[in-house]
Amino acid sequence: LSGIRIIDLTQVQAGPSCTQLLAFLGADVIKVEQPGVGDRTRHERAVSEDVDSFYFIVFNANKRSVTLNLKTERGRAILLDLVSRADIVVENYGPGQMERFDLGFDTLKRANPKIVYCTIKGFGSYGPNAHVKSFEHIAQAMGGAMSAQGEPGREPIFVAPGVGDSGTGLHAGIGMLAALRQRDATGEAQRVEVAMQDGIVNLMRIRMIDTFNTGKPIQREGNRTWGGPTVVYPCKPGGPNDYVALILAGDAWDTVLALAGRADLIGDPRYATTEARQEHGPEGRGDSQLVDPHGHQTRGYEYLDRTGFSGGRSAGLAGSP
């Protein structure tokens, strides 16, 4: 994207994650911030008052910044001058804020008849929730992600990855790349609208299959999934991330039972099929921990990796093994 200039009017996560991705692809991203304070995340959860927070850095590295007060005529005039020399404008203000600034799509088109304008909202610009502001957890709730996450019979829970914010950013980035091609083909300005709820729904397609098949709502099943099945097993020496996720298809199940010290369950009809293993897998696991076949108290996933299992260890985010 070398030679592409983006005016970034976004904050927090959904917009900044999108524009940062395009910056990593070579675009010149100019982030517009509030005079005196900057982006609200510069100091949120910061380890020191004198440095930008990691919250800000992980979503805004590789950008240039300028401060403008868009509520003033001078700030608005400077922004429109920037727009006249840019390719893309991205914003994720609350519903209606760009129009209150008198900086809506029609105004931006007058400043630059070939501008690509991307607006990121919780629920789009129309419909019963168009006026509602959205954040990560609201998007997960309203997009259906929470309904599928959690233990049976318990309350729905949030997932840790930013599927509502950063997932929306990915969808917005793809939309803008397509809009650039359309702009170049037609010579006309383009408008891209991305709703956080839509992004979540798109990412939920794999979990919708059972609903399509049965017409019933998604059931919360903890770590169990229909595609495998997948089971999470504890490993030696028993640290907080000493777990391995396994796809237990075919003969893999018998090997795992032996490693877990439950060879007595090999041949048990409760585990004869993948469906039965899915239903009864946690019972077979018990409190066992995976060990290698020689009895050494090493992490089971190291042995499983050497034997070619389809599995992965739970990797800690702080660099723990």
From TrEMBL:
Its Gene Ontology molecular function terms? CoA-transferase activity
**What keywords were assigned to this record?**
Transferase
Q: Where in the sequence does UniProt note compositional bias of the Basic and acidic residues kind?
A: 276-286
Gene3D superfamilies given for it? Crotonobetainyl-coa:carnitine coa-transferase, domain 1, formyl-coa transferase, domain 3
Against InterPro entries, the record matches this protein to: CoA-transferase_III_domain, CoA-Trfase_fam_III, CoA-Trfase_III_dom3_sf, CoA-Trfase_III_dom_1_sf
The UniProt annotation puts the region (Disordered) at: 273-321
| Family affiliation | Belongs to the CoA-transferase III family.
Q: What is this protein called?
A: Formyl-CoA:oxalate CoA-transferase
